[in-house]
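We now fix the convention by which a protein and its fold are recorded. The integers have meaning only within a learned vocabulary of local backbone shapes. The record below shows the convention in full.
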Amino acid sequence: MAIVSLRGVSKVYPAPTKGSAPVTAIDEVSLEVEAGDIYGIIGYSGAGKSTLVRLVNALERSTTGEIFVNGHDIALMKERELRRVRLGIGMIFQQFNLLGSRTVARNVAYPLEVAGSPKAERTARVAELLEFVGLSDKAGAYPDQLSGGQKQRVGIARALATQPNILLADESTSALDPETTHEVLALLKRVNVEFGVTIIVITHEMDVIQTIATKVAVMDKGRVIERGPVFDVFSNPQHPASARFVSTVVKGVPSPREMAVLRERHTGRIVTLAFRDDAVDQSAVFGELARAGVAFEVVYGGINEIQGRPFGHLTLALDAADVAIDAVLDHIRTLTTVTEVR
């Protein structure tokens, strides 16, 4: 069941200068996020992903199209009606957006104050959330006394204060170091699993997507160019932009320039083998080469995992008589894809 549904949504801004054309930030996007998903939206700067997430909580209004959130068409709702819908949508930000004049506890309590919750209820909820994010001992501290990771934990606690069933995370780890990023992503995963909160993650970092997302949409120039389960999209990308993201964490097939360098270093024949989702065992392929008397060396590539499922490419330099190599490659082609540049 879709908890967020976008149908033919566009966002067009007026021309920035006289005589220039209007700016289309979102271009006919249709997307469905099911309850319980951790849905990643990835794209380079200017792709439109942050604009898209602001449309979901109606911080900005779409120009055309329909946007359903929790069954409500928010594109048609008045501001007064939207306030109620927004209580079901939490948001965390890249730069934390904490109130410096408030303690950690009062930052977390702020959405509850706005919602008019009784003081006793606020106090109990804040204590519960600070314990969940591991910051009970920081309740009386101020934001400038916290590390970046601690600030983001406060941001997550605040976003959960009104018990939303949707959480929007807009570049929420891009200001953090790798170790802290891992901790924050683990916390978001807990939010999803333990509270059943649907999370939409906006990022330009492939590693974030492969760590926690279940599904992904790749954006480019305001359009969704590819979408689906994370493993399917990134183990076999169909669009060049998707392939570029994969290449940031996994070396795939060598480019012509890289292949030229490999040929200078290795005199044997060079082939690239595809490995995906345990469909073929690396040891089985290497065993076939060894039994055929073909010496080999891994010269490029790598294997990665998403949710325990491996994928990647390995490029090998093979050294033996052509007849032996041809015979063993014919057999390996029954196991996996083999690409050879002669």
About this structure: The chain has two domains: 2-247, 256-340. The CA atoms of residues 182 and 282 lie 29 Å apart.
